């Protein structure tokens, strides 16, 4: 059983030994935007929806607790929850990875000269994206939180920790190495919380979870949840889980996940590789007894831009409708969308960039706006791919893709055209959940090893580049002009 707790929905997928889905249940939950640039979730709603979809998937498949070998968890990574260890109630809304309220704090770290030290220790850059500044904000701004944390009354966790704690009835306060590596508080070489950074952020160590491998038995589910105990045996941040689910086990393997954000990861093997081109270094999920690393490029807004078209602009009834709209027009009419709704991530790391639409003329249409929004996902991926090629010293000839938006044939073909590379979409695009299942299954012996898992990999479709080089170069030139406009907007802010 894989619990895939994402930014906009909770889902549960039950897989069999071949990697085939036996059942899948999903439920969206509310997004809260209390101030411009702020993004929050209700952590209790996340737990309630997770429990609901897990029970629903078991009912749909007709399986009982005794039929489930293990539970694996994959999650939105940097989102920060602080709760009372005795009552289990959060002290405030969860601060979502997209939230930019702590941007001034990140700026102060950079100004104080901490960038290089943070990078060497954690593989990350000082940015509001990561959990450290979010946790500091809670301790500084929620009345009584700091005193209670220092007294040992409060616990911190990313969403994996929050779910494991609830699943085990409060018996396990743990996280895995991949999620720990996203906090900006964890030494990725020494594999421990870094004392110097804890002091810098003013964070009491007693509120931090114990760090465990990604494939490991953390505890058992409380029997009343599912009618019996089930081992909770795997956890990984969503992007590391997708890398594992794509069977990218070797150095040089690359995947891109098109979810709420867009995340390109390259497996770099047993040693961390530090980017010279705006990428971050992170810990990859791995089989028991191994530590592996990855280079990552993070796009903050990808599928979320399509949700914006659906929910705020009311231009489409659902995300799937965007494909037909985009295909109904020959091009965007020279219009570009830069969906920097919460700033720009890799390789630019500009916290203050904001969304722009450039090149509009009177004849610009709804369908062209939808097409331009979809194309923005491919352009942002292109920028990260070129940065990754420079760091790795190799040309990218193929890209494995997954995530909800990878089902969009128009987007995948445009991605192949812009990259000038093959795009390989697996038969099962739910590789994030599949990775969590694999990690949990390995821990309890359901699968023997990664070689056993690799036999399950199946490619669904391969997209080949079809665009003339001259057209491609012209489109990319326009994208760079649009990007400059978004960055200029940020630079002009008072």
Would you mind describing this structure in some detail?
A hairpin with a 3-residue loop joins strand 15 (254-258) and strand 16. This protein has helices at residues 43-61, 103-111, 115-122, 131-141, 145-150, 159-167, 177-180, 195-201, 223-226, 238-245, 303-311, 321-327, 366-392, 409-419, 431-444, 450-454, 469-491; strands at residues 2-5, 9-15, 21-28, 40-41, 71-75, 81-84, 94-95, 154-157, 174-176, 186-187, 192-193, 210-212, 215-220, 231-237, 254-258, 262-269, 280-284, 292-299, 336-338, 356-358, 398-402, 422-426, 459-463. A 7-stranded mixed β-sheet has the order 17-18-16-15-21-22-23. It has a 6-stranded mixed β-sheet with strand order 3-2-1-5-14-13, with helices on both faces. It contains 17 helices and 23 strands. The protein starts with a strand and ends with a helix. With 494 residues, it is α+β, with helices and mostly antiparallel strands. It has a domain at 2-239: ATPase, nucleotide binding domain (Nucleotidyltransferase, domain 5, 2-Layer Sandwich).
């Amino acid at each position: 059983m894989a619990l895939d707790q994402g930014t906009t929905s909770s889902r549960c997928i039950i897989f069999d030994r071949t990697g085939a889905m036996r059942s899948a249940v999903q439920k969206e939950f509310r997004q809260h935007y209390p101030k411009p640039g702020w993004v929050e979730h209700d952590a209790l709603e996340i737990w309630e929806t997770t429990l609901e979809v897990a029970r629903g998937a078991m009912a749909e498949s007709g399986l009982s607790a005794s039929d489930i070998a293990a539970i694996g968890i994959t999650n939105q990574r940097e989102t920060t929850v602080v709760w009372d260890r005795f009552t289990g109630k959060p002290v405030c809304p969860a601060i979502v990875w997209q939230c930019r309220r702590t941007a001034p704090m990140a700026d102060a770290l950079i100004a104080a000269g901490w960038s290089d030290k943070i990078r060497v220790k954690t593989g990350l850059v000082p940015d509001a994206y990561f959990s450290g500044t979010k946790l500091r904000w809670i301790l500084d701004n929620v009345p009584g939180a700091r005193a209670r944390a220092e007294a040992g009354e409060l616990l911190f966790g990313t969403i994996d920790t929050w779910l494991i704690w609830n699943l085990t009835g409060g018996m396990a306060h743990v996280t895995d190495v991949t999620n720990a590596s996203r906090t900006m508080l964890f030494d990725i070489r020494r594999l421990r919380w870094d004392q110097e950074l804890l002091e810098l952020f003013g964070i009491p160590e007693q509120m931090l979870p114990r760090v465990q491998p990604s494939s490991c038995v953390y505890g058992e589910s409380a029997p009343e949840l599912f009618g019996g105990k089930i081992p909770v045996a795997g956890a990984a941040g969503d992007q590391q889980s997708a890398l594992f689910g794509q069977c990218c086990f070797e150095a040089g393997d690359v995947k891109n996940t098109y979810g709420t954000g867009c995340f390109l990861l390259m497996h770099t093997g047993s040693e961390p590789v530090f980017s010279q081109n705006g990428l971050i270094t992170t810990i990859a999920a791995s089989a028991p007894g191994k530590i592996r690393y990855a280079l990552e490029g993070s796009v903050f807004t990808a599928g979320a831009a399509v949700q914006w078209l659906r929910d705020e602009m009311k231009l489409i009834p659902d995300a799937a409708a965007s494909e037909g709209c985009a295909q109904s027009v020959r091009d965007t009419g020279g219009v570009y969308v830069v969906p920097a709704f919460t700033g720009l991530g890799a390789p630019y790391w500009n916290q203050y960039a904001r969304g722009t639409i450039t090149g509009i003329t009177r004849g610009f249409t709804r369908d062209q706006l939808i097409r331009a929004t979809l194309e923005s996902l491919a352009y942002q991926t292109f920028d990260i791919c070129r940065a990754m090629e420079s760091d790795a010293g190799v040309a990218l000839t193929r890209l494995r893709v997954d995530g909800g938006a990878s089902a969009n044939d128009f987007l995948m073909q445009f991605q192949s055209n812009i990259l000038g590379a093959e795009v390989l979409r697996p038969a099962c695009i739910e590789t994030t959940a599949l990775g969590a299942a694999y990690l949990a299954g390995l821990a309890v012996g359901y699968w023997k090893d990664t070689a056993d898992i690799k036999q399950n990999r199946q490619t669904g479709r391969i997209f080949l580049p079809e665009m003339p080089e001259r057209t491609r170069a012209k489109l990319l030139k326009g994208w760079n002009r649009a990007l400059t406009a978004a960055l200029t907007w940020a630079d002009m802010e008072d």
